[in-house]
Design brief:
Blueprint (H helix, E strand, L loop, with lengths): L1 H17 L11 H9 L10 E4 L2 E3 L10 E3 L2 E4 L5 H10 L42 H10 L7 H8 L14 H9 L27 E2 L6 H5 L27 H12 L9 E2 L3 E3 L6
Parallel strand pairs: 5-6
Antiparallel strand pairs: 1-4, 2-3, 4-7
Helix pairs in contact: 1-8, 6-8
Length: 283
């Protein structure tokens, strides 16, 4: 128990520190974001999308009595892979590592790729792509006619284990996720090698961290998912507000990471998957 307490304490302190770093933030206006997506060449995505009926869940941060509503949507069953991202930059040269603007990514963008159109020698084509910024992930999603999932959509799915839609109250739920998070070099494994969760979604925890679209929604709107966020405050997500689930140490770790990074950052085990709106509503 002491090991888990130390992890939670360290990451909570990290959240408290990171949430106060709003100065010198990455500045990108809405018109510039529009330019990013308007110049894209569409590509085809063949990944299976899973229907999520939506519902309500208790967000990790915010007032304990507030429930967030998630409307029905569809989510990619797995993360975007190296070979899929290669197809994207092949058709959209402005997102190649030699051409991407510093405004949209730091210097580690696709850092292991030896050239613009060449995957790393030992990289598995079906492993998730990493070292991509939020801007790049958003552009890819637009090119395939999709979008990035919202924070609430991602966390709603993340509540599930293999047999239950909401496994938060299970004793081993958080511990099992932490054990996956602590595995080294997991981002180099191929997608869909582990079992899917209750919804049929693969690899929510055992491969990579993942971008969400509204990654600064908590930080800049005081826990209101419906609020409009300032484009100048594009952090990955999270805030130093009150936690509604102090025993969910795995969520502490996710929100610590989300709070600490900006939209142009790239990280060796941070990738993404896509989502899409749907008009389907099943009873």
């Amino acid at each position: 128990m002491k090991r888990k307490f130390d992890i939670a304490g360290c990451f909570l302190l990290f959240i408290l520190i990171s949430a106060c770093t709003q100065n010198n933030q990455h500045d990108l206006g809405r018109e510039e974001q529009k330019i990013i997506t308007d110049t894209l060449v569409p590509i085809t995505s063949v990944v299976k999308m899973v229907y999520i009926p939506g519902g309500e869940y208790k967000p990790f941060y915010g007032p304990d009595t507030v429930m967030a509503k998630v409307i029905p949507f569809v989510m990619d069953e797995r993360a975007v892979t190296n070979q899929e991202y290669l197809a994207f930059v092949t058709k959209n040269p402005q997102w190649r590592k030699s051409a991407i603007k510093p405004l949209y990514s730091d210097s580690n963008y696709l850092k292991d790729w030896p050239s613009d159109l060449q995957l790393p020698k030992n990289a598995k084509p079906n492993a998730p792509v990493c070292n991509v910024s939020w801007f790049a992930a958003k552009a890819y999603a637009k090119a395939v006619g999709k979008r990035l999932p919202t924070l609430d959509e991602w966390e709603f799915i993340a509540m599930a284990d293999e047999i239950t839609a909401n496994a938060r109250n299970k004793k081993n739920y958080s511990d099992a996720i932490i054990d996956l998070y602590l595995q080294k070099n997991r981002q180099y494994n191929e997608v869909k090698l582990s079992k899917p969760n209750y919804w049929g979604v693969y690899n929510m925890f055992d491969l990579i961290w993942e971008w969400t679209d509204d990654f600064n929604s908590i930080l800049s709107t005081n826990d209101s998912r419906a609020g409009q966020y300032d484009d100048k405050e594009l952090f990955c997500a999270g805030s130093a507000t009150s936690s509604t689930d102090i025993l969910n140490y795995a969520a502490f770790m996710r929100f610590a990471l989300r709070t600490s990074i900006k939209a142009h950052y790239t990280i060796g085990n941070l990738g993404f998957r896509c989502a899409k709106d749907t008009a389907i509503k099943l009873n």
